[in-house]
Design brief:
elongated; Four Helix Bundle (Hemerythrin (Met), subunit A)
């Protein structure tokens, strides 16, 4: 059976995205491994608790994943109005997530813990690196989401032409899973 050019293009793009996501996952696996190893240091903070707003942001990012899923489902059903509305909902939830992340950092700083300097600790420095690196990937996700939104208004998608949305949704779910992994890891491994 011969694969047509569109299917070959689709498979290639999906495979490239999977390679990228796997390499990102490996980066975070390495960082969380270093977190575990560093926790045996004498200067590791015992009993450090994440601010509650990080829990709220976790719920928000799950909702953003659900709204992106609903957006793709609306597109496949041919409901372009709902598709666009759900994309806007995803964007709003993502902005709320980023806001909560910065609020969480504000609480950590207000508690006297900084990224570097005399008031820093290895514990909070790791937390900053993990969360800020994830936020950098969320920024990339926001760019992807913006491109999908622009293309939606340019009528680039239809119930039969969904590749860009599928790739964006897959990356989005990966970012959400990655955050939940980091949140649960840091919460459990104190």
């Amino acid at each position: 059976m011969e694969i047509n050019e569109i299917e070959r293009n689709s498979r290639t793009k999906k495979m490239m995205l999977w390679f990228g996501m796997i390499s990102m996952a490996m980066t975070f696996a390495g960082l969380t491994s270093a977190y575990v190893v560093s926790s045996s240091r004498e200067d590791w903070l015992e009993g450090f608790q994440l601010p509650t707003i990080f829990s709220i942001s976790s719920v928000i990012i799950l909702l953003s994943s659900a709204s992106f899923f609903l957006a793709k489902r609306s597109l496949k059903q041919g409901n372009l109005t709902q598709f666009k509305a759900m994309l806007w909902g995803t964007l709003a939830l993502t902005i709320a997530f980023v806001y909560c992340q910065f609020q969480g950092f504000g609480e950590i700083i207000a508690s006297g813990y900084y990224f570097t300097g005399a008031e820093s600790s290895i514990t909070t420095s790791f937390l900053y690196v993990l969360v800020l690196l994830h936020l950098a990937h969320v920024a990339a996700g926001l760019i992807v989401l913006t491109v999908v939104l622009i293309n939606a208004y340019r009528n680039q998608y239809s119930d039969e032409k969904t590749l860009g949305v599928e790739l964006a949704e897959l990356f989005w779910h990966f970012l959400d899973f990655l955050w939940l992994y980091l949140f649960v890891f840091v919460t459990i491994y104190q």
